[in-house]
Specification:
The structure holds two protein chains of two kinds.
Chain A: H1 18-37, E1 41-42, E2 48-50, H2 51-57, E3 67-69, E4 75-78, H3 83-91, E5 101-110, E6 122-131, H4 136-152, E7 158-164, H5 165-176, H6 179-190, H7 194-203, H8 208-217, E8 221-222, H9 225-233, H10 237-256, E9 262-265, E10 278-284, E11 292-296, E12 310-316, H11 317-324, E13 334-338, H12 343-355, E14 360-364, H13 371-375, E15 380-384
Parallel strand pairs in A: 1-5, 7-9, 13-14, 13-15
Antiparallel strand pairs in A: 2-4, 3-4, 5-6, 6-12, 7-10, 8-9, 10-11, 11-12
Helix pairs in contact in A: 1-4, 4-10, 5-6, 5-8, 5-10
Chain B: E1 5-10, H1 13-24, E2 40-43, E3 48-53, H2 58-63, E4 69-73, H3 74-80, E5 85-89, E6 95-101, E7 113-116, H4 119-128, E8 134-137, H5 144-148, E9 153-158, H6 162-166, E10 170-178, E11 180-184, H7 186-191, H8 193-211
Parallel strand pairs in B: 1-3, 1-4, 7-8, 7-9
Antiparallel strand pairs in B: 2-3, 4-11, 5-11, 6-9, 6-10
The chains are: A alpha/beta, B alpha/beta.
Chain lengths: 394, 212
């Protein structure tokens, strides 16, 4: 590679300039307050983790991990998500803590560089994990809290798609008979390739009933009426159990009064193997990419030797800010310009104003080149300039 | 009235064929679009806006959500691997991908080279065949490559085979058949589900009738 220009950053890395910082911070504060009011306790974990522990357990694909070596030659990863680190903490430092455990985070996560713009390699994520609770109430709490957090951030027009990977797996397995063939079909759903799914189903030489069941899956997208349609496709216990789980979830969501924002989508497969139950994804009308996602991952904790059911969600702060579509105005600032003879007065004035809660920039006149241009950035300019020179505009 | 549904399409033949399908599905489109140089065409009666893009770029517009829907060849879908829903096989612009070369071509062990507009697709294909080749990316007129010795084979779209014949090339292997697909942005798929489902259903009916 040739020498980078001095202004260049590695691909996918972004600067956060003041206006954007302000916006991001206000969005984050509003959501954090909401999440805090639900009793979730914030934690932080290190940016570097072992590849063999967190890197391996994470839902993020291997090729998307940033890897590096420590001095002993261990492979490290920059944390690609927060779910795996939190699972590690829940299974170790917090292992004596009784379940359920409610934890929250906001932090930067890292994904290896992508080929083009719009895909940052480092971005801020905010989310929660609810560990050690397998009830539909817990699943419902995740979705309801995510909705409240998005609302608190100021997002108005949004939808959440809710699916159940247990239902998909049970239906596919029931029809095609073995895990390998089910996996092929699941991959088509994961890749959002419904045409490929249809073509593949037609090539399987299934009975017309079975073919109808599989193709029927693609139609299971909509309101609560889809629960009944989904029931017609299943003949086995696991699928019925998943469906029952979804019915309970719908009840919970009705209790929270959030079903206006919810659409069921039985085809939602966000990962090939990570999730085990309810899954969901959030979308805002102003951005083409999903803003948030989450789901139940009952098999992760056992990788850290403390088997437990768990569920959670994460919100992409960078995408959410884009979807909100407005930058926060910088707060008003006052400038006190002084000449060194009256510095003391100026400092006193600044102190008083700051005590009143104002934002005050204290600036020595001699340090400014173009006073007019400089002054433009402030809502108010107060001068403490030596009168003898007669250039005070007080 | 809600904002128009934004549809990205390649210019030219696919556009004509897709528009015809939409007309058959009773979308109120004008019988003719006059200014052929415009890149954005409004169809207010159907509440649609067409974005005319390069074929290979259609999935990009849809992935980023600046188009809700797109019509893209399966070739570009395989090549680009964009995160979009592929919801309907429109069965238009049928063709296939093929490996072609000069008549009497024999596989060589000396750094075999393949030229293509589809480097990802070609790489994937030869990997699956267990054959090690070097891919050379070209942007068009691929048939020249074997004639001038840039590569010994090419991977390209074949519809009638006429272009190959005119350049003295022969088809060596059929790879995969290609048709145009209706693709949908994942967010639009939820936020505008009623209109999109309606469109998919109406188009599906037309496509199935044509099949029968």
């Amino acid at each position: 590679m040739s020498q980078p220009f001095m202004f260049e950053k590695p691909i996918g890395m972004r600067d956060t300039l003041p206006a954007y910082y302000q916006t991001k911070r206000s969005v984050r504060d509003q959501m954090e307050e909401e999440i805090g009011s639900w009793g979730y306790l914030p934690i932080e974990t290190p940016a570097l983790e072992y590849y063999d522990t967190v890197g391996h357990a994470s839902a993020i694909l291997d090729q998307q991990l940033f890897k590096l070596l420590d001095q002993q030659g261990n492979t490290l990863v920059l944390r690609p998500d927060m779910t795996a680190p939190i699972a590690r903490v829940a299974a170790s430092s917090l292992k004596d803590h009784t379940f359920p455990l409610r934890l929250s985070y906001h932090t930067n996560v890292f994904r290896a560089q992508q080929r083009e713009g719009g895909r940052p390699a480092e971005f801020e994520q905010m989310g929660v994990e609810l560990v050690g609770d397998d009830t539909a109430s817990a699943d419902g709490e995740m979705i309801a809290l995510m909705i409240d957090a998005l609302k608190a951030a100021g997002l108005k027009d949004f939808q959440i798609a809710v699916g159940h990977i247990g239902y998909v797996n049970a239906l596919l397995l029931d029809v095609v008979g073995n895990e390998e063939r089910a996996g092929t079909l699941r991959r088509f759903l994961y890749e959002k390739n419904y045409v490929g799914f249809k073509h593949h189903v037609e090539s399987l030489n299934l009975s017309s009933i079975d073919e109808k069941r599989l193709l029927g899956l693609l139609k299971l997208r909509g309101g609560s009426e889809k629960l009944n349609e989904a029931e017609e496709l299943v003949y086995n216990g696991d699928a019925a159990k998943a469906l029952d789980n979804l019915r309970q979830l719908w009840d919970v969501l009705e209790g929270y009064g959030v079903t206006d924002h919810i659409k069921l989508d039985f085809n939602l497969v966000m990962h090939m193997s990570y999730y085990t139950g309810v899954v969901f994804e959030g979308y805002g009308s102003r951005l083409g990419f999903p803003l948030s996602s989450g789901g139940r991952y009952d098999e992760l904790l056992q990788k850290f030797n403390r088997p437990a059911q768990a569920t959670g969600f994460g919100i992409r702060l960078d995408l959410l800010v884009e979807a909100l579509g407005q930058t926060k105005q910088q707060p008003q600032q006052t400038c006190i310009l002084f000449s060194k003879e009256r510095r003391k007065e100026a400092i006193e004035e600044a102190k008083q104003q700051r005590e009143q809660g104002k934002r005050v920039v204290l600036q020595d006149l001699q340090g400014v080149g173009n006073v007019d241009e400089w002054s433009e950035a402030f809502s108010e300019v107060i001068s403490f300039i030596d009168n003898k020179k007669g250039d005070s505009n007080e | 009235m809600s904002e128009p549904l934004k549809v990205a399409m390649p210019k030219g033949r696919i556009f004509e064929e897709a528009i015809e399908l939409l007309r058959q599905a009773d979308f109120a489109l004008p019988s003719e679009f006059d200014d052929s140089r415009k890149l954005i065409i409004e169809a207010p009666d159907a509440n649609m806006r067409f974005i005319l893009a390069k074929p290979m770029d259609v999935p990009t517009y849809v992935e980023h959500g600046v188009a809700d829907i797109g019509v893209a060849g399966k070739d570009t879908m395989i090549e680009e691997e964009r995160d979009v829903y592929e919801v309907l096989d429109l069965n238009i612009s049928e063709c296939y991908m093929a490996v072609a070369g000069l008549p009497g071509y024999e596989k060589t062990d000396i750094n075999p080279k393949v030229a293509s507009k589809y480097p990802n697709l070609a790489t994937q294909y030869f990997k699956e065949q267990g054959e090690q080749v070097e891919i050379i990316k070209l942007n068009g007129s691929i048939e020249i490559a074997p004639l001038v010795g840039l590569a010994d084979r090419i991977v390209d779209i074949v519809s009638s085979g006429q272009t190959l014949k005119e350049n003295g090339l022969v088809e060596l292997e059929k790879m995969v058949s290609i048709t145009s697909r209706l693709i949908v942005n994942p967010v639009s798929y939820r936020m505008k589900d009623t209109r999109i489902d309606d469109m998919v259903e109406r188009l599906a009916r037309v496509v199935e009738e044509d099949d029968a």
